[in-house]
Amino acid sequence: MIRPPTARSVIPGPGRLGLVEPSAAADLADLGWTTEAHIDLLWALSRAPDADLSLRTLTQLKEALGDGWPELAEALHADRTLRGRLFAVIGASTALGEHLVTDPQGWRRLTTGNDLPTADRMTARFLEVVRATADEGCPGGPVLRAAVTGPEAVALLRKEYRDQLLILAAADLAAVVENEPVLAFPAVGRHLSDLADAALTAALAVAVATVYPDEACPVRLAVIAMGKCGARELNYVSDVDVVFVAEPADAKASRIAAEMMQIGTAAFFEVDAALRPEGKRGELVRTLDSHIAYYQRWAKTWEFQALLKARPMAGDMGLGRKYVEALGPMVWTASQREDFVPEVQAMRRRVENMVPAAMRERELKLGRGSLRDVEFAVQLLQLVHGRADESLHVQSTVEALTALAAGGYVGRDDAANLTASYEFLRLLEHRLQLQRLQRTHTLPAPDDEESLRWLARASHMRPDGRTDSLGVLRAEIKRNSLRVRRLHAKLFYRPLLESVTRIDSAALRLSPEAAIRQLSALGYLAPENALGHLRALTGGASRKGRIQALLLPTLLEWLGETPDPDAGLLAYRRVSEALIDQTWYLRTLRDEGAVAQRLMTVLGSSAYVPDLLMRAPEVLRLYADGANGPKLLEAEPEDVARGLLSSSMRYRDPDRAVAAARSLRRHELARVASADLLGMLTVPQVCTALSSVWVAVLEAALRSVADASLRGRGRPAPARLSVIGMGRLGGGELGYGSDADVLFVCEPVEGADETEAVRWATEIAERVRALLGAASVDPPLEVDTGLRPEGRSGPMVRTLGSYRAYYEQWAQSWEIQALLRAHAVAGDPDLGLRFLHMIDEFRYPAGGVSQTAVQEIRRIKARVDSERLPRGADPATHTKLGRGGLADIEWTVQLLQLRHAHEVPDLRGTSTLQTLDAIAEADLLSREDAELLRESWLTATHARNALVLARGKPGDQLPGPGRQLAAVANAAGWPGGDANEFLDHYLRVTRRAKAVVERTFGE
């Protein structure tokens, strides 16, 4: 019976009801909802997520019902529950609205009293649809067999599944329109999982009847739910991950499984068996023993993580329970595996990298602060502590958070907040999927206000008095995403800190044993030591200790992502203790997030930089961002060199002058190495900066020693002295572990005795070498004069004329080749320039070098290849002397210089890379070949520098696969620090370059 008019006597127009479509007034008239008797219906309609969609679907439903419409109209007046469920579901889901229109009598399922069916009732209903009964004559026990198969069965099952989704969605959404009870998220996930179980039970019955239409089924087949379905937290639209176990696992068993998957995918949802052993390449069906053998011998860490969610869902439930009982215990030993941490970290990186940067703020499942952040963190904590605590052996994310909080592994407030954020994000995901019953996890674009406003209304968000529902939604998305990212770090590290500090917290009671387990699973090889560092950093009641306790959760997370978190944490402790009196230090880490993150990246990646930072702590301030980018990049090599010279020349005493130069060099090394590790500098930029600071130190030492000598003599210098850079110093291509190869050349001043001049210059040179080579905690400053005429048995210093005479009469081919990289770097610039002009006639001889000299160079190169490689070194991965390494590239470039520089002036350079460009420009090599040589030189140089950065000492040999190679790959800036990919790339690049070298030397 139609109710009398309410107190609200004014009939609201379409605009007040939120209706914007032009046809709204006509549609309301068509429904007959134009009088005061319909005011309650109109206001309820206005609360639908999309009032226009709800109205449009109602008009279609009226047409489909025909004479049955008055009964529904009367029921809508009388049944508030029906009104809330119907208006909400057809205003939120186009797909379910269309389903209701095709079966208009389906509205009766939404009336008061029609509660959600139980799991048993849904299963019975699906089996009834396909007329399935138990075949008692099967050898393995009763097996369900359907009487309806083929397309007819698929159509019937699809309709029943949509009917059940309609019932659930209507109950889930009803509170949006009317004051109905809110259906809790866990209840929705459980019901959807039960619905999937029921649906696949029926699909399996159809599959059995398809494969065995006229005979008893001899196969015992169990379907194991995995993923969200296994955890009973399924989405409205989601793949259902399954694994099959059968006795026997023969071709017929595989066919039954395949048929079930095909039926389920056609009728309900995508049925995915990719989580089975060996993935999509593996057998679809295995016996229980085969499953056990695979997980005992071959399974990777992520596969054990997937088993966390495994549960029997359909088929032979007894066999399914045996599967879970046999494999379940293996899950709880996964965190003890040697590859546990790298595999988990690699998986996490892959997940984050799957999402394009532009989409990460909109991605609910995989972006930052997303559902996967919560699930990943919770599962990792379960794996870590579940071995010793059976209360964590639960499957759903929400239940696991509750258990983690109860066990003291996570703070209760944090667990509650993370649960709330998780359920909020899942709610948004559900609403987006319901709209068209399509699998999606992506929020509407920020400028799509209409779609966002619909989402806000469908998610039961109302204006809060200050902002509309759209503003509330945006604020909630931002708040929950940030909270997930913050708590993601606290989940792991806050309990650790509570266990080692004096903070009184009844909610957290992580034992030392549990803390050690957690640190071990986070990648610490010496967790007991790490725990000691945490105690030292946070000990006492000092303000510094409290600040450290606040900082460390996030710092430890960043350290955990580095190749060596143990060394990183120790280095952080040492740096913190060294700077304990510097008030700016902790304040900077607290207030400058970029500084803290960059510092952890550097400390956990390098054994080279921490010592430098402790002696040059002011470099830490450069980790911050300036107005134009990172402050680490603000210094230019020329400015650094001038500042170093200016600072050192303030001191009259050479020891103090060189100490000042060392100090500034230390600062520059820390700056360059930090920027290099953080991926801010290219290889040529690193080489230029290192060469420039080396030259400045050399110049500073030379000036201070010469000035002190002259003050002691009391008369002018008897000679001019110049330093000629050789090798990488001459080419401006020094690395972190390079020595400075030099020649000292002098020239007596007018009227001076040549013997005295040479003696004085030699004293200066020897004093410079001694000062720079003195023992120091800094990286060494070795001045190497081994390339001088007659080698180490020859005089340290020669006059210009003596050099000329030697090169004219005695120089061997390799000595002339070495002159190709000679460049004046310090001392008297005029003398240096004249030395270079003098040697030009030897290194760039008219007509090029003789064929005899070329043959000699080839002979020496062959001897270097066969004899110089250190014993036990791998020729494929030795960065200097190995295949396609630095020596190969540089000898190739130098041979082309010797042969052609007399006629191609652009080849007269000392830089390998610049000369390669000139070689390509002159068509002496194809551009493709020149590019191969360039790439190999850069790759080998980068790897060689990375060896020093990672290990803290010079080296040329790449380590074999393992943690050391991973550290080198990370220091070399290889994406994701994947050691195997880094090594494969190195081998591929150097192999191609070696082919070019062999062709060039063979011509």
TrEMBL record:
Asked if the keyword Magnesium belongs to this entry, the reply reads yes
- The top EC class is transferase
User: Which one GO biological process term can you cite for this protein?
Assistant: regulation of glutamine family amino acid metabolic process
The segment annotated Adenylyl transferase runs over 504-1003
Enzyme Commission number(s): 2.7.7.89, 2.7.7.42
Its required cofactor(s), as named, are: Mg(2+)
Family, per entry: Belongs to the GlnE family.
Name of the protein in question: Bifunctional glutamine synthetase adenylyltransferase/adenylyl-removing enzyme
Query: Which species does the entry assign this protein to?
Result: Speluncibacter jeojiensis
